[in-house]
Amino acid sequence: xTNGIDERDIMEEMxxxxxxxxxxxxxxxxxxxxxxxxxxxxxxxxxxxGEQTSAQWVRIVFHDFVTANLAAGxxxxxxxxxxxxxxxxxxxxxxxxxxxFMAPTISAYLSMADNLALGIVVSVTTCGGSDTGIPLRAGxxxxxxxxxxxxxxxxxxxxxxLAQFAAAGFNQSDTIGVTAxxxxxxxxxxxxxxxxxxxxxxxxxxxxxxxxxxTIPDVFDSxxxxxxxxxxxxxxxxxxxxxxxxxxxxxxLYISDKNATMQAISEEAAFQKTCYSLFERMINTVxxxxxxxxxxxxxxxxxxxxxxxxxxxxxxxxxGLIRHLYTTETPPSTVSYTTGSSTGNSTVQLSTTVxxxxxxxxGNTTYWAFNSSINSPGTTTLNFETVSYPVNDEIFVLPxxxxxxxxDKSFVISAAALTSLASSDGMAAIxxxxxxxxxxxxxxxxxxxMVMTKYAxxxxxxxxxxxxxxxxxxxxxxxxVMGSASSRTVKSKLFVGGI
Length: 499
Ligand code: HEM
Fold this sequence. Notes:
The mean pLDDT is 96. The protein has a 5-stranded antiparallel beta sheet with strand order 1-9-10-5-4, with no helix packed on it. Strands 6, 7, 8, 11 and 12 form a 5-stranded antiparallel beta sheet that branches. Strands 13, 14, 15, 18 and 19 form a 5-stranded antiparallel beta sheet that branches. The protein folds into 3 domains: 7-283, Peroxidase, domain 1; 301-393; 396-494, Immunoglobulin-like. Helices cover 22% and strands 26% of the residues. With 499 residues, it is α+β, with helices and mostly antiparallel strands. It contains 11 helices and 22 strands. The structure holds protoporphyrin IX containing FE. Protoporphyrin IX containing FE (HEM) binds at residues 51-52, 55-56, 58-59, 62, 92, 94, 152-154, 161, 178-179, 181-183, 185-189, 192-193, 249, 253. Protoporphyrin IX containing FE binds next to α2, α6, β2 and α9.
């Protein structure tokens, strides 16, 4: 990543938001769409509005992606949609609901655009799709301003709509497929489209007057296709049956190849397979300057919140959590680990303390706490089960000797570096601060550099500290740098008082 963040950390953060859904170390992301019919929007009377968060998360990806210009290498999934909520083509609550919900999970590791990609993938899963159907990559970079307009609307004529999709790399059949896939979930609302949905849909428990595209708008399946082809249920939905012919954009699209694509995806397995592939292409449509990671997989074993510490004599210790994700097998009651250095592995250490357990879409989790001294300098890995986690004991942040004041957003940061590394550049901390910006409810990570001063020596190490005030205290990531040496990053939630 161009901002000095390890790709491994980016991928592991995305995995964390995806997997840690409840209990220890959970963040509530997937809970928002569990069950699939759930709504966590910010409008008043949320529970009776007739809205569905999972559907919003699918729709927002389409609206962000479709204005890509493949030939120019611009646009795609870059979260520019976060600046575009006022456009008529973006009618509805979905942009601000989604962006505001996801803003807290923006960090140096995870952009808003990566949050959006994650959102559609977990929505498909919780709404009944496969949990491994859509490979999810990380590394998207957020736009800093609105992009061009050009999302098809119900009144957009067929050729214009097909040209808009074509500019984003989708041919006619792709366009028909991806629209039917999207319209498997959610509703069209009277509140947004009063000429399309009848006012009678507005009730005390459906304030926005939502009418489903199919009879089960909270299940990701081929019903919308069947009902269209067989003239049952919702008949393909309001964009097929709208009173005004000009509003029948789904009908124009579906019949434009004489229903060939709709026939081809009418079998459930073919529908799912086609939709996963088309959704994957949407989320992987990114500006040509962006390089995506390999797919993020669910990790059976994982190191979490790893931190180094040092005492006054210069003895370095490592602590953190070991997470095990399991489905059917019984989790072990202890986990052994070693640390690796140039002179070989340490003696085997045992973690017997279960720190907590959690639930996930992909199984259950158990967390063990570990804490032990390491051979320093020279330790380069923490090893357990299948994991070899990189350690840098030459230069490191000291989370337990650092603190955050969440009231005035001030940080006091301590760090250690080998005295032999000392550079005339001095030691500095870089704080990656998700910062409010104008024109959107999203945030942008801004780098704050803090000069540190030497305050002690401890064995082979020199200790530094400094203080700084940032725009926010939440979801800040910190690393320290000296000359060409750079530490691993840590979350400031590990600091005393951190969030
Ligand atoms: C020509 C193409 C398309 C047009 C004209 C179109 C139009 C619309 C309209 C008018 C709504 C109603 C929004 C509201 O009232 O809240 C809607 C909803 C929706 N659209 Fe599309 N759409 C198109 C393609 C797509 C695609 C490609 C996807 C995703 C892959 C998608 C996903 C959705 C979803 C999930 C909803 C439900 C949103 C909710 O319940 O909040 N649409 N669409």
